[in-house]
Amino acid sequence: MHSQDKSKTEPFWGTSDEGLNTPSAFESGAFDDDSYKPQKPISSNRQKYQLSKELKDKDYHPIMIFGTRASGKSSLLASLFYYLQTDPESPAISVKGEWIIPIDTAYGQTVADLASGFLNHVINNFHDGQAAPSTRDEFPFYIPIILRPNNGLPEVKLAFLESRGEWYHIDKNSKDLFPELREEVSDVYKNFTGSISILLIAPYLIGEAYSNETPSELAVIEMKESDAALFGALQAYQSNRKDRELDRYLFVMTKWDAHTQSIIDTNFVKPPHGMVAHLIYQRFPRSWTLFQNMQAENAQCMQYSSGVMSGDARVDVPQHLRHIMNRFPQMLWEWIYQNASGGHELFNPNFENKKVSSTSEGSGGLIGFLKKILT
User: Fold this and answer.
1) Structure pTM?
2) Alpha helices in the chain, H assignment, sequence order
């Protein structure tokens, strides 16, 4: 539970699976380790390289992750790598890729320091039981990753966008209301000639996740403003992106454990058909409507839980229940890998070039389940 009463912040697992309850999923908190934080970049060096060209030349598939403050973006990203590093049956490993921007400039070295900080400090702390902190860096950066399957499938090079949620918030004192995209994002939209993956991140709840009380007026206002911010980010994508027909989109509702409050609840991993889309529309009607209208096919969405969170702590799930929590990173890695590899199925290598479809029932196993849940 997450409340002012500190005695209620400890997780209660119960004496059996039926007694398992999850504490707060409010995925934010202070990050006290400042040892890896670099100096600010020199703007002249920043202009020296065209990020979109560097990504293309080095064969990276960009994964653009957008979400407002306290949406759980960083925890989601940390949970993806945590899964690969802790599941003995994972079909792949991840290693740091070559730097996208050469590190012989102040800007390139700064970007490398930021990416290294996430891959080393943030993920290591996630292993040790600390939720990923809110991103507080001065500018967006990309984390270069090589995803290397161990089942004979081709490896892919991925560039994960990490950015502050505050950069997408609306400014009611501005004539434009919506902030301009940062150069690191707009350049990729305008000039990257390959496909990119768009992940729109929105939380099930903002604030006191496990309170039985009606959401506060402030929480309601922040939810509406988050909806407007995501709407603005999608509009900016539409205005700047030239090759939209190459891209894939996924709307992810994070902090899903706040909905079920128990990871053994049937709705935790297998909610009824249409439930996730309905809840997204209830909370984020403007951005969900635009998201749907951006594509001719049915819009894809899924629920996601980065783990059992209690304040700024990540609580270890008992070993016999970890397979339940692992379903979320498995599904998201499958979606990412299919996009980057041209359709290969990471968790089902015997069936190649079958893209995820929101209308297809699939063939069973994780792939069939993924096709059913992305709807």
Assistant:
1) 0.80
2) 43-46, 51-57, 73-86, 106-117, 123-127, 183-191, 217-240, 257-260, 266-269, 275-283, 285-293, 322-341, 365-373
